[in-house]
Amino acid sequence: AAVIAKIEKPEAIERIEEIVRESDAVMIARGDLGVEMRVEEVPHIQKKIIDLCARMNRPVIVATQMLESMIKNPMPTRAEVSDVANAIEDGTDAVMLSGETSIGKYPLRAFTTMSNVAKRAEETMGDHVALDRRLHFCKHEEFGNVIAASIAQLVQRMDLKLVIGFTASGRTVRLLSKRRLPVRIAGASNNLRVLCRMGLYRGVEPVQIEIFDQSEEMFRRGQELAMERDLVRQGDMIVFAVGIPLGTGATNTLR
């Protein structure tokens, strides 16, 4: 089972590196943090944890009071909109609604507002800056990171439209997600648990795919699925990441 560590106590901040290392993902519970410690410390802690998760290749969620006023009102405050956008520009993988959709009067409008703000923030944040920053944190002695960094370099130098990662565990796709590539990433797997987990990875679209005995069949089916889902158009360039022989459990090939 995967573990998402909810950070809500000062004691957790004191040992945050150990917690992030042992977790599959991290949630920054800002409401609880603001109660447990001085409120002016929370923005700094949020940025620190997001940065740490980037270096340690862990998905991170920013939660609590993001669009709090929409529990009662149909429109958010300008400060709330800025809060959501800033979290995304800082590098969070996900932003989370809570009371806005559980007890609020306008749950669908709150969701739509959050989605629109997130999309606009990603359009304007400057992907190349984020990419350079993530590459700086890459530990090249780890083979999965080498593959992810190689794909990031290809994206910078070629007109790629899509990266398809065939994965049994989701690890390589997670590493690609943390690189903040300025192209779409499709995480292809036949494992339902892995597909659900990849839904948390920023910039990744999980794609269910059957298992093939031959790599050529898998590449062909990957192209077909990309076209069916409108991820690419005829003539677009795609890069595949896969472990060969198939089923090895480790990505070792780019095509």
Automatic annotation (TrEMBL):
Output the Pfam families linked to this UniProt entry. Answer: PK, PK_C
Domain Pyruvate kinase C-terminal residue range list: 146-255
InterPro entries, from UniProt?
A: Pyr_Knase (IPR001697), Pyrv/PenolPyrv_kinase-like_dom (IPR015813), Pyrv_kinase-like_dom_sf (IPR040442), Pyrv_Knase_brl (IPR015793), Pyrv_Knase_C (IPR015795), Pyrv_Knase_C_sf (IPR036918)
Which residues does the UniProt record annotate as the domain Pyruvate kinase barrel?
Answer: 3-110
EC assignment: 2.7.1.40
**Pathway linked to the protein:** Carbohydrate degradation; glycolysis; pyruvate from D-glyceraldehyde 3-phosphate: step 5/5
The molecular function terms of the Gene Ontology recorded here are: ATP binding; kinase activity; magnesium ion binding; potassium ion binding; pyruvate kinase activity
**Keyword match Lyase:** no
Q: Which UniProt keywords apply?
A: ATP-binding, Glycolysis, Kinase, Magnesium, Metal-binding, Nucleotide-binding, Pyruvate, Transferase
In which family does this protein belong, per the annotation?
Belongs to the pyruvate kinase family.
The protein's name is pyruvate kinase
* Species per Swiss-Prot/TrEMBL record: marine sediment metagenome
